[in-house]
Structure formats: structure tokens, C-alpha cells
Amino acid sequence: MKEDTRKTPRVGLFVTCLVDLFRPTVGFAAVKLMEEAGCTVEVPMAQTCCGQPAYNSGDREDAAAIARQTIEAFEGFDYVVAPSGSCAGMLKKHYPTLLKGTAWESRADAFSGRVHELVSFLVDVLGVTAVPAAHRGSVTYHDSCSGLRELNVQKQPRKLLATVEGLDLKEMANPDVCCGFGGTFCVKYPDISNKIVEEKTASIAAAGAETLLAGDLGCLMNMAGKLHRQGSRIKVRHVAEVLAGMDDTPAIGGGGR
Amino acid sequence: MSGREAILGKLRNAVGGASDPARQEAVEKRLARPARGLIPARGQLEGEARVALFCQMAEAVTATVARVGKATDVPGAVTHYLRSRNLAPRVRMGADRRLKGMDWASQKSLEVTHGPATPQDEVGVSHAFAGVAETGTVALVSGKDNPTTVNFVPENHIIIVDAKDIAGDLESVISRLRRKYGRGEMPRVLNLVTGPSRSGDIEQTMLLGAHGPRALHLIVVDG
Amino acid sequence: MEVTSPQFKQKSRKALADEQLQRAMGKAKSGFIGKRKKAVEALPEFEALRSSARAIKDHTLAHLDLYLEAYERQVVASGGRVHWAETAEDARRAVLDICRSVGARTVTKGKSMITEEIALNDFLEKEGVRPVETDLGEYIIQLRGEHPSHIIGPALHLNKEQVEEDFRRVHTELPQARDLSQPESLLGEARQILRPQYFQADVGITGANFLIAETGTSIIVTNEGNGDLTQTLPRVHVVVASIEKVVPTLEDASQILRVLARSATGQDMSVYTTFSTGPRRPGDPDGPEEYHVVLLDNGRSSMLGTEFHEMLRCIRCGACMNHCPVYHAVGGHAYGWVYPGPMGAVLTPSLVGVERSGHLPNASTFCGRCESVCPMQIPLPRMMRHWREREFERGLNPATQRFGLGLWAFFARRPKLYRLATSLTIPALSGLGGRRGWFRSLPLAGGWTRHRDLPAPEARTFMQQWRDRDTRKQDGGAA
């Protein structure tokens, strides 16, 4: 244990496709949090997406090809960390299933052991107990489904948010109920997805917080998109932005720079 | 019989053949020596604590409970209950030996009829085979002296439970059944009753007295 | 029952616009979830009991042929008869033959999803036998000519005003001026109307929650007591049950009972758990003179040993649909066949074919709440995904979807090309979003923007910016 703490953990950041394309701030917040916790963070260029669109559409072949590509890209890191419970869940829980019975089975299992969702990595693996950030105002936190149910991410973000100076956490009713995003579900069944996100935004509004936080960009874009369509003034951010003290940037949908 | 063979044939194919003696043995062993699973700690109490839990759990499911010292007190307790509920002094019961042994004649105005229940019966009286403290459940068995209709047709059901018959868990009741009826044998009907009849089918509003008894009264006999 | 699952989208749109339904679903949702939670929290051993219950079913399924044979032997030994039915048609015939053999004109019915699955009521009616549903919810929907919208709360989709309307329409012998404004009065009226039916019926039909191989016993679990009146008063009792209902011993049933009611209604035990073994015995003052079991396969044996094997552990508690956001949104009827919600999304394709029910396993966000509450730990999302795989293999998904997925996968499997493509398109899209930062509509994103706005990308991609940072670092290092 002592030897480990002296050695600097080398982390490969799995950026996730949505963060890469839509909200790079989340990626930089993740890097900052992990560097401040004493890690070296690198970003392999050979990553694209975790493969969920294919996997959840029944296309195992493409999903498996992407899984192999990702495992290869992250060979040699002590840890593989993603700022998303959904993508981390895919890498950690589903890659081994996907590659079971193939030549990649043992590599997938070993890879799985190194994968973590960002906030649970900070708290459970690195032992971070507080962040030096400050955030003036109230927030409410939505538990994204995969992080919550596949990776048990629930207490960790709340634990760290409690240490953010000036932050007031106002819990919404049923924070653990799905927001209706569901990847391709939200465009394949837009009307049902809409009904579910409407219930969610009603809970969010009733919580009375100024900012909505969550750990998954897909869910955040869904909820932010609905809130904006409804004319709400509630700001939406990834939890890592607040924890990293990067809340001076525009919130999601706050305009280009 | 062709349906039988077709279904069993498909099942055998799917699970790996019938001729495997290991499978046969596993099944025979399990049936010959039924194993208890996990028994929750809640009901694992002795003596008065167990009886008290039984009463508490029964009341939690809106049964009413009265405790009497001995079997001879039961007819009086029944009369008392009927009066308190403003019910006519008339009850239906089977020819159960334990019920028959009670001095019903001591209750002057009380009319007792025997045999299966009819739509005219307002109150049924049964004697329980056992109670289950864990859930406040009463176990009733059918037989020539214990008509099942008494348990369901009248709007009010009074069940006599001997405190000594209250077990901690259902598994203990099952063991007793096996001792009484023999391995692999069962009474025609075993009714586990946990509170009075209810329905939540209209807007999830829980209402008592759907088709079975609207009221369930337990008389626990301590001695 | 006709399979209308292909119209899932149209039916769900209708459901979303149905104010009565939405009001009823709102009530149902909070009720079930809160009650289950309370019951589970009050039993520290609940999680361990789930594993124990699961192990019992896993063992039983691995020896299903042998346990069914043992069960049959015991039924026969106790004076009952077993009728094996490979298909729904076989089961309907078996029930009708029994009814005919006693000249039955009226049958009462306890709540049974299996008789829904084999569409028994319509069939009996056509053959001149009148089925009377006695469970309050089932009775209501029978009056309306509907099917259950929930496996344990058949009339969950209705409000009391709708029930009042139906009762006034059908019970014309009762005074018009009567007060039916409260659920109590509706229940009282149903009780009064149904009471004589139990005594008039020639045959009583129930389902079964468990069949016990050890003793040849069938078990029904109910709250109303209608199942008991149904099986006690007529001359003949017919149990219609599917083959996976069997468990080895009484103790095994007891174990699963501890998770069943808690998961379903949040009760520790349902009010009536009734164990029936054979017909009336010599000297018995009541009870049926004949006891029959119709054992239904209807496709279940083909699930055994496949990736859908674990679905056969299902005990029909309804917890998965009670916790499903999609079920909450559209209700049970949109699913288009007997079994709605997550368990229906897995079971329906298994029983009627995925080509007729492909929407069901697709209409899920994979939020995983169903699996997390399933008392039998059935991996429902995983099996829905397996159905999507079967569809994909067979090319059953729409062509546009396949094309889009194929295009995306082409790039996702080629990181360099992916980098290039995204580094060109994302900054452009960001620019288009402009200072507003949102799109109200966008070509090819109609599914998204129909109901919500799309945030524009911040600027350049993370990868572009990261390269700059690396370059800066290296430059800084060199300087």
C-alpha cells in the first residue's frame, strides 16, 4: 500500500464520445481532478466510443470490434477512467460478456478490473475525501442509471459535493429514476422518452435548485434540452465541472466560446 | 398422452437427457429430505414473545385479537365479540373435536349450527391447525370436521388458535403437517390466512371484505 | 388473444394522450413502489432470500422433466387428473372437455394470467359456456371487454368513475339512484352481484402460483378470497398452470412466498395462500368432487437452455412493471399482448415470436430498475438485448436504422478517420449553434428535437484541444 502511494498512478482517460464532441470541459475537469489527486493522466488517441450504440442495437460484431480496439488502446495503464457511469459500465461490465469465449476473454477481464467511473475512482480508489472547489448556489443531483445500478455510484458524488464551499445540495424527489435518455431509445421512441423526461424535469424544478448536476453527459443533454425547451432557467452541468472548480465556463447549452 | 411425451421430450433434450442417474438421484434426494431454506430471524422467538409477535403481526394486517386463559373461556369470548360488533348471536362451525368440546350451551342466546357454510351464515368459527408468528398467519386444514366454506363464505370469521400451536415460521408448520399426514401427503386444503379479505383493484385503495370475510377475529387460547 | 404489439408506437402515443390513463398510472406508480420498499426494508434477510429463491428455481429448471413427472404422480395419487397441453389450443380443448363432461353452463374463474394467455374466455363463450371472472379487477375489465393492463392489477388503468359507469351500464337490476361514488360502494356491489355466481357455477377455474412436486399440491395466492370460493363451491375445480410453476417441496414454496407478496404488493404475506391437493375426500363436508390440472407448455420448453432460460424463474409478481418508467408512461395495453412491462418485453417475443413483438425489447432505456427489484434476480435488460441481437441477425430492424448504425460503426472502428471527421464537423456545428448555444431543430435529429432542444457543441473537440495542450507542454518543455 505504501509503495503504491509513492508511485504515481498512471491513468488513461476514456473521454467518451459525447464529452469529446459536445462538452470537452468535462474532460478537462476530469483531468484536473485526477491530476490534483496525484495521478498522471494520458489520453490515448485510438479511442472513439465505448460501443453502446452497436451493443444495445443488437450489433455484437461491431460492438466487439470496438471493445477490442478500446482494450488495446488502454493497454499498460494502471487505471482506465471515464467521466460517465454508462460508458464505464460498458467497459467494465459488458466488454467481458461481449468477448467471453474468444481469444480476448482474459484481456477483457483484466481490463475490466482497471476500469472506473470518475467520481467513484476519486473516492473509492484514490481515497479523496474533499475537493478544494467553491460553488455559490444550490444544486440538485440526478443519479444516472448505469452508474447507480451497475457501478454503485450514489454516495461518492454526494460525499464530495458536501465538501464544495458554498454549495447547497437540494435533493429532488426520486433522483434514482431514469431521465428517459436511454441512448438510441430517446430517438427511437421520442414520445415515451419525452413523457419520462417531463416527469424528471418536474422533479428537478420542484427541488428548487439553481443548477442540475449528474455524472453522465447523455442524461445531462437530455434533461438540459428539455429544461431549455420548457423555458427553464435551471443551469445544467456535469458534476465533475463543479468538483473541479470549473463552473466559471458557460453551462450546457450556454453558447459557444 | 402424446402431449405429455412431447413436452417431456423437449424438456429432456433441453436439460441434457433423462437417463442421467445423477439427475434422478438429485431429484429423489431433494424430495425425500426437504431442506429448509433461509428462515428470517423475526419469528425465531420463544414462549410469550412468540405469541406476542403473532398477535402484533395479525393486528398489523387488520385482524383483531383477543387472548383467553383456557379453552372453556372461548364461547364467552365469541359472544362478547358478536355483541361488540352488533352481530346476531348465530355462528356456523364444523364438527371439529376441539370446538365441540367447548361448552357452547353456556351462552344462552347463542345459536350454533354445524356443517358447511351457506350464504345465510353471517359468522363462521374455525379452529386453527397452527399460527405463524413471523407474519401473523393462521393455518387451517380441511377435513371431515372442518369445512372450507366456513373460512370464506360468512362475512365474519372467528378463528381459535391455541398458543402452543403458534410456530415461529411456516417451515415449522410444514414439519408438523408432515408428521400428522405423512410424507408427501397433505390435507385436501391448507388455508394460510393473513388478515381479512381485501382488494386494491380500484385505484389502489385498500378495502376490506372483497369476497371473503370482511372481519377476521382471532381468539388465542393461552392455556 | 390477438397480438397487437406491432402497433406499439401508435398505441403508446394514444396512451400518452389519454388523460384518464395518465391519471390512473400516476396513482399506481407511487403506491406500488412505496409499499414494496417499506416491506423490503422491514426484512433484513430480503436480499439473501432473493438468492435463495433464485437457486430453488435454477435447480428446478435443470430437472424440470423429472419434477413434473413426480408432480403428476402425486396429483394422481391424491385422486386428481393431469392434462398435458403442448399448445394454447390443446389447453382450451382440455378445459372445454372437462366442462362438457359435467354439462357445465357457467364457470367461475379466479385470476389467472395463463387463461389470458390461452384466451380461454372467448373460446368458452363461443362454445356455449359462460365464464364469470370473480377477481374484482378481472370482473371490471370483463364487463368492459378489455384485457388486463397489469399482471396483478388487471384494472390498474382505470379510475373509479369509469368503474361506476360500467356498473351502472351492466347492473341494471339495481336502483339507479344508488350511490357509487366511493370505491367501497363499488366493491360492495361487485361482492353482492358475484356472490350467487359462485354457488351457481358448475366448474371453478383457477391458475396456480406454485405446483409442489413433493405432494401434488397447487397453490394460489390471493387477497380477495374469490379464488377460494371459485375452487371450493363448484363440483369441479380446474387448475390451469404452466410447466415452470413447479417447485420441489413445500419448504421451497415457503421460501419463494417470502419474496412474492413483498415484491408484488408490499405485503409480508398475501391474505390467502391456499394449498389444494386433489378432490373432496371421503367424509369431507365440502370441496370439489373433481380436481384437474391442465399443464401448459405453449413454447416454454423451447426457452429452456437458451439465453432466455432465466425468464422461466419469473413468479409473476409485477415488480418489474411497477418500477418501469416506460410502463408508467404508456400503461399495459400498449404492449399489445398478455404480458406487459419488462417481463412482457422478454416473454412475449419468446411466446409469439420476435417478428411480431420487436418493439417490446427495444422500448427500454435499460435503466435496470426492473432487474434491481426482481425477486428472482432475472437479468431482464440483458435478455431484452438478446432479443435485439436476434432481430439484428435476422435483419428485422428498419433499413434507415441499420444504415445509420452501419455508418456510425464504420467511423467508430477507425479512430483516425473518426478524429478527422469529427474535427471537421464539430467546430462547424458549434459555429452553427452560435451564441444561442441551442438547436431547436436540426436535419437528421428530428427524434431528439421533436420534444427537446439540442445543445450545440462547445467548440472544437476534446481531442483537438488535448493535442494543443500536449503540444504546448512539449513546446514549454523544450523552451
Automatic annotation (TrEMBL), chain A:
<feature type="domain" description="Cysteine-rich">
    <location>
        <begin position="139"/>
        <end position="223"/>
    </location>
</feature>
<dbReference type="Pfam" id="PF02754">
    <property type="entry name" value="CCG"/>
</dbReference>
<dbReference type="GO" id="GO:0016491">
    <property type="term" value="F:oxidoreductase activity"/>
</dbReference>
<dbReference type="InterPro" id="IPR004017">
    <property type="entry name" value="Cys_rich_dom"/>
</dbReference>
<feature type="domain" description="Cysteine-rich">
    <location>
        <begin position="11"/>
        <end position="92"/>
    </location>
</feature>
<protein>
    <recommendedName>
        <fullName>Cysteine-rich domain-containing protein</fullName>
    </recommendedName>
</protein>
<dbReference type="GO" id="GO:0005829">
    <property type="term" value="C:cytosol"/>
</dbReference>
Automatic annotation (TrEMBL), chain B:
<dbReference type="InterPro" id="IPR037171">
    <property type="entry name" value="NagB/RpiA_transferase-like"/>
</dbReference>
<protein>
    <recommendedName>
        <fullName>LUD domain-containing protein</fullName>
    </recommendedName>
</protein>
<dbReference type="InterPro" id="IPR024185">
    <property type="entry name" value="FTHF_cligase-like_sf"/>
</dbReference>
<feature type="domain" description="LUD">
    <location>
        <begin position="122"/>
        <end position="221"/>
    </location>
</feature>
<dbReference type="Pfam" id="PF02589">
    <property type="entry name" value="LUD_dom"/>
</dbReference>
<dbReference type="InterPro" id="IPR003741">
    <property type="entry name" value="LUD_dom"/>
</dbReference>
Automatic annotation (TrEMBL), chain C:
<keyword id="KW-0479">Metal-binding</keyword>
<dbReference type="InterPro" id="IPR004452">
    <property type="entry name" value="LutB/LldF"/>
</dbReference>
<dbReference type="GO" id="GO:0046872">
    <property type="term" value="F:metal ion binding"/>
</dbReference>
<dbReference type="Pfam" id="PF13183">
    <property type="entry name" value="Fer4_8"/>
</dbReference>
<dbReference type="InterPro" id="IPR017900">
    <property type="entry name" value="4Fe4S_Fe_S_CS"/>
</dbReference>
<dbReference type="InterPro" id="IPR003741">
    <property type="entry name" value="LUD_dom"/>
</dbReference>
<dbReference type="InterPro" id="IPR024185">
    <property type="entry name" value="FTHF_cligase-like_sf"/>
</dbReference>
<protein>
    <submittedName>
        <fullName>Iron-sulfur cluster binding protein</fullName>
    </submittedName>
</protein>
<dbReference type="GO" id="GO:0051539">
    <property type="term" value="F:4 iron, 4 sulfur cluster binding"/>
</dbReference>
<dbReference type="InterPro" id="IPR024569">
    <property type="entry name" value="LutB_C"/>
</dbReference>
<dbReference type="Pfam" id="PF11870">
    <property type="entry name" value="LutB_C"/>
</dbReference>
<keyword id="KW-0408">Iron</keyword>
<dbReference type="InterPro" id="IPR037171">
    <property type="entry name" value="NagB/RpiA_transferase-like"/>
</dbReference>
<keyword id="KW-0004">4Fe-4S</keyword>
<feature type="domain" description="4Fe-4S ferredoxin-type">
    <location>
        <begin position="305"/>
        <end position="335"/>
    </location>
</feature>
